[in-house]
Amino acid sequence: MSVRITTLAERPELAEQLWAMKTSWPEFMLHDPMATLYYEVCTTVYPEFVLVADDDADPGRLVARGFSVPFTWRHEELPDDGWDAAIRWAWNTRRTGAEPTLVSALEITVRPDLLGSGLSPLMLEAMRDNAARLGFTELLAPVRPNAKHLEPRTPMAEYAARTRPDGLPVDPWLRVHVRAGGTIVKVAPRSMTVAGTLAEWRKWTGRPFDESGPVEVARALVPVHCDLDHDHAVYVEPNVWVRHRLS
């Protein structure tokens, strides 16, 4: 496979393909309300920060996509609300007309039939290179460890700290980031929040949600909190902040 990775600004004709590309995201992950502040405008406001990848043998059909966003952050410590915070900062930066000082990765997605083919590291490298090309010295990433869903009851801090004998993280996606030069900074315990009625959660997951308390859901990193009396369930996902120095 000969992969071509460019920005959407360079190839605006691929905008529709961003949403046509098949993904493996579980349905409930598509209902974080913060997402609309970015995804509804990313192709027109942030095209230089959107990556599109296709194969020369099948041009125009995406094999992977990547989303990042510029923002201003003046505090020393990164916040506990990672992914949601990055989108909020970016929105506020744009609203106030402030000069962005950092870039946050938001998503790198590989087409399901190509998972495990080595595209994820290529996309991360391209995202780092793109941020550096645009003049930024750091890329932050609220990383969603991709094997954490196998241990939803394990605290994220414990999971993220696990390493192999070679010192690299046990989690495959965290390992890709560290190999690329990233440094694990801290856990973002409330990186994403998805709330819905019990009927919505039943539709999103196929689970009955018929008992109050923690409910384990496929592909969720932690249990969903179900409340029968108040007819709602809430998923608060922890991520892991990783910092990539670009210079």
Topology:
Layout: E1 3-7, H1 15-20, H2 36-39, H3 42-45, E2 50-55, E3 58-71, H4 82-96, E4 102-110, H5 119-133, E5 138-143, H6 156-160, H7 172-179, E6 182-196, H8 198-205, E7 213-215, E8 224-227, E9 232-245
Parallel strand pairs: 4-5
Antiparallel strand pairs: 1-2, 2-3, 3-4, 5-9, 6-9, 7-8, 8-9
- Indicate the percent of residues in helices: 25-40%
Q: Helices and strands: which structural class?
A: alpha+beta
General shape: globular
Total count of domains: 1
Biggest sheet architecture: 9 strands, mixed
Point out poorly predicted stretches: none
Instruction: Output the radius of gyration.
Output: 18 Å
For the termini, the CA-CA separation is 30 Å
At the fourth CATH level, what is the homologous superfamily? Gcn5-related N-acetyltransferase (GNAT)
CATH class: Alpha Beta
Overview of this protein structure:
- This protein has 247 residues and is of the alpha+beta class.
- The chain has one domain (3-192, 237-245): Aminopeptidase.
- Helix content is 26%, strand content 31%.
- The chain is built from 8 helices and 9 strands.
Summarize the structure.
The chain is α+β, with helices and mostly antiparallel strands and 247 residues long. The chain is 26% helix and 31% strand.
Question: What are the main properties of this structure?
Answer:
globular; 247 residues; 9 strands; 26% helix
